[in-house]
Every structure is written in structure tokens, then in C-alpha cells.
Write a structure and sequence with these properties.
It is a single chain. The chain is α/β, with parallel strands linked by helices. Helices cover 38% and strands 17% of the residues. It contains 13 helices and 15 strands. The strands form three sheets. Strands 6, 7, 8, 9, 10, 13, 14 and 15 form an eight-stranded mixed β-sheet that branches. Strands 2-1-3-4-5 form a five-stranded parallel β-sheet, with helices on both faces. The protein has a two-stranded antiparallel ribbon with strand order 11-12. Strand 8, helix 9 and strand 9 form a beta-alpha-beta unit. Helix 3 runs parallel beside helix 4. The radius of gyration is 21 Å and the shape is globular. The N terminus is likely disordered.
């Protein structure tokens, strides 16, 4: 949706087009990033230590150095402002985001925050202080999020509101939900996921299918709440098994609920068919989730590094991105780390593209308007992004795959499909 201060297109009229935003000078533009320093410990606490993220600090610095070497963002030098935080200290998400907002607007002044995993708290704080935000590739936003925060875009992601449509379409195309399927959904007990669940019901109904059971479990805002989330998921497994649920869907961009559900299901000797909606299956398998849990599962995906397809061909932009980091001595120990590296390259590529299209002064509103008029961009982490047709999230292509037990891998069941 178009917000009150922006319009689709690269122009913003009136006085706002003449006022540079915070963090902007005639020769430079400051960009904020958020770096979690303890992702390995956080993942290990969940039993997902094999899902690594790489050295994000080194990758961000290398990406900015490379961008500046090539002329910066439309001739402006990009200066990097890093906010470091820990995920396992017990601090709430709200507290971390308030600290980040203060850091980016008081301790320093940035024009935009890139690749940021923010909730409404952080978005509200940054938006009201004149900072644009381009989110991460993993979204838990709905259409209401973008309506509320017109200075927020997700160029590398698919929002929950679009995901559920493509999810339902993909499950239908793959023949995953036969007429006699009894379908369960695992989601979260917070408003944006409640809204996405309602939208998924509508999307499935268009294919003549319904959700028979919905388990909305605790959404863990901090480390201390993971125990309750895990207990809720254990109860959901028992409930689904007792109700005869044969097919299970998930709404969770992080993959945490899938990990906990499938491990718990195996311990209860429960093996429904799974339909995944965000290329998470291969990453889950790498954590040690038993292969038996994946039998007959299918995926609608847009992160080729997480598809788990042997001999897959990755986007050409990924090769250049990884080589950039390799030349600087940065290595990767998992496909998830390579995907994260791709997100960093793509964040700055899209940002530079948007800045090059700004007419008038560079500020949050002109930057967002320019981004929304940008042409499609071939990317490293996904296949292509495009903010076309009024979109506020950019994933443009998806691909279907299915698990093959003989090779303990996935195989594609379609070519690239244009995302709805």
C-alpha cells in the first residue's frame, strides 16, 4: 500500500524533496546495520548449531568497501554504522530495538537501516525520526505493516501476506493437499501471524481446501520465553496426532517452530506430510532432524541455497558476491552462511540502485519512492527482486521442490514461477 508521504514512482513532490535526511551530506550517506554477535550460541541453544551465519561484520565491511571502490551510492561515499547486540542476554526484542534506534538516530545519524530484523517497535521509532528501513530476507510482516510504516520496504523478502498466497498456490500445484487431507497449521499467537493465518485460510479456500486445526504457539520475544514456546509446540504435536492431522503447514520465517515440531513429532512416532513455504527444509535437515520426518514433503522456495537440490544452479550474482568475500579471506561453512552473504550483497546492490534513482534531496521518503520505481534486479540470495505493481516486498520468482528419500535430498518439480 502507498503510505501518506510516498507515491509509486521516483518523485516526491513539495518541500520534502528538497530536504536531505539524517546521515546525508553532499558527498556521503550513512547506512546502519544490526549485527548479532552470538548467533552461533543462540542457534546451539535451539539444537540448530549446524545452521551458521558467517562473519557478518567482515562481510558488511567488505561489501561497503567494494561499493565505495566502484563509486559509492550515486557518487556518495557510503559510511557504515554498526549496531552490535547479543541474542542470549535475556534482553527483550523491544529493548534491543529501542537501543538500536537510539544508536542510529542519537549516537549516530543514518539515512537508512539495511537488512534489519525489526518489529513494529523499531520501525515506529526509526520511521518517526526520518530513517528508512529495508528489511531482511525473512519476513514476518503483513500488508498492515507496510500501511502503517510507509518508510519501510522488504526488497529481498516475501511478506506473510504474499507468502500465504504463493504457499497455497504451490501446495495446490504440487498436489500436496488431496481432498481427503486433514490439514494442520502451526503459527504464532501474535496479531500479524493471526492475520496471516486468516489470509492463508482464504488462499486455501480458493483451491477448495481448508485448515482443520490451527496451533498458535507462544511467540518467543526473548530467550527466557523459548521454554514456553517449546512446551506449546510439544502440545501441538500431541494435538495434531490425536486429531488425525495428515498434512502440516507452517508460518514461521525463522524455521524454529519447524525444527522443534519435527523433532518432537519424531519422538512421538508421528510422521505427517509437511509442506514448507520458505525453502527451510534443507536447513532443517542439516540440523539433524531425522530423514524420516521429510518423507513426501514438498517446498515452495525462493532461496536456492536452502533448496537442498544436488547439482543446483545458483544465480549468477551469487558467484560474484561470494568471490568478493573470498578475495578478502572470508570463507563459508554452510549454505545458510552463503545465503546470508548473498543477502548482504543484495542489500547494498538494491540500496545503490534506489539511490541512483532519487530525484531531489536524498531522504527517507525520496529513497523509498525511488526504490519502489526500481527495475527488477537479479540477486545473489534469491532469483530476482522487483517492487512492481505497488509491491512493498520484492521476491519475484519461486520454485517448487520435493524430498526424495533415495538420495536424502530435494529435487525440483518446476521451473521458476512468477510469484503472485
Amino acid at each position: 500500500m502507498v503510505g501518506p508521504t510516498t507515491s509509486v514512482g521516483s518523485s516526491v513532490s513539495g518541500a520534502q524533496a528538497q530536504r536531505p535526511g539524517p546521515g546525508v551530506t553532499a558527498t556521503s550517506v550513512a547506512v546502519g546495520v544490526m549485527i548479532a554477535d552470538d548467533t552461533k550460541a543462540a542457534n546451539s541453544a535451539l539444537g540448530a548449531g549446524a545452521v551458521t551465519h558467517g562473519d557478518e561484520e567482515a562481510e558488511y565491511r567488505a561489501a561497503v568497501e567494494d561499493l565505495n571502490r566502484r563509486g559509492g551510492a550515486a557518487g556518495r561515499k557510503v559510511t557504515l554504522v554498526e549496531f552490535h547486540f547479543d541474542m542470549t542476554t535475556g534482553a527483550s526484542t523491544d529493548a534491543i530495538e529501542q537501543q538500536a534506534c537510539s544508536y542510529f538516530t542519537e549516537d549516530h545519524r543514518v539515512a537508512v537501516v539495511l537488512n534489519a530484523p525489526l518489529t513494529d517497535v523499531g520501525l515506529q521509532c526509526l520511521s518517526t525520526r526520518g530513517v528508512a528501513v529495508f528489511g531482511t530476507s525473512l519476513s514476518d510482516s503483513t500488508d498492515q505493516t507496510f500501511a502503517r510504516f510507509p518508510r519501510y520496504l522488504e526488497p529481498l523478502a516475501m511478506s506473510l501476506s504474499r507468502l500465504v498466497v504463493n504457499y497455497a498456490d504451490g501446495m495446490h500445484a504440487l498436489g500436496f493437499l488431496p481432498a481427503n487431507a486433514k490439514v494442520g497449521l502451526l503459527s504464532f499467537d501474535v496479531p500479524r501471524f493471526v492475520r496471516a493465518t486468516a489470509q492463508l485460510r482464504q488462499a486455501l479456500a480458493r483451491h477448495g481446501r481448508t485448515l482443520h486445526e490451527v496451533a498458535a504457539v507462544k511467540y518467543a520475544e526473548q530467550q527466557s520465553e523459548l521454554g514456553q514456546q517449546s512446551a506449546d509446540i510439544s502440545s501441538a504435536v500431541l494435538r495434531f496426532r490425536s486429531s488425525g492431522i495428515t498434512h502440516v503447514l507452517f508460518l514461521d520465517p525463522s524455521g524454529v517452530s519447524e525444527l522443534l515440531f519435527m523433532n518432537n513429532a519424531e519422538s512421538q512416532h508421528y510422521r505427517p506430510r509437511y509442506g514448507f513455504g520458505q525453502s527451510m527444509a534443507a536447513a532443517l535437515r542439516s540440523t539433524g532432524v531425522p530423514a524420516a520426518q521429510f518423507v513426501n514433503s514438498v517446498t515452495v522456495g525462493w532461496f536456492p541455497r536452502l533448496d537442498g537440490v544436488r547439482g543446483a544452479t545458483y544465480p549468477p550474482a551469487e558467484k560474484a558476491c561470494l568471490e568478493l568475500f573470498t578475495r578478502r579471506g572470508i570463507s563459508f561453512d554452510s549454505d545458510n552462511a552463503r545465503r546470508h552473504a548473498g543477502d548482504i550483497c543484495d542489500s547494498f546492490s538494491f540500496f545503490a540502485l534506489a539511490v541512483s534513482r532519487v530525484r531531489g534531496a536524498l531522504n527517507a521518503d525520496t529513497l523509498v519512492a525511488a526504490a519502489r520505481s526500481a527495475p527488477p534486479l537479479s540477486t545473489a540470495g534469491t532469483y530476482r527482486v522487483a517492487l512492481t505493481g505497488g509491491r512493498t516486498d520484492g521476491v519475484d520468482l519461486v520454485r517448487y521442490s520435493a524430498y526424495v528419500a533415495d538420495c536424502d535430498c530435494w529435487q525440483y518439480r518446476s521451473g521458476l514461477q512468477r510469484a503472485s
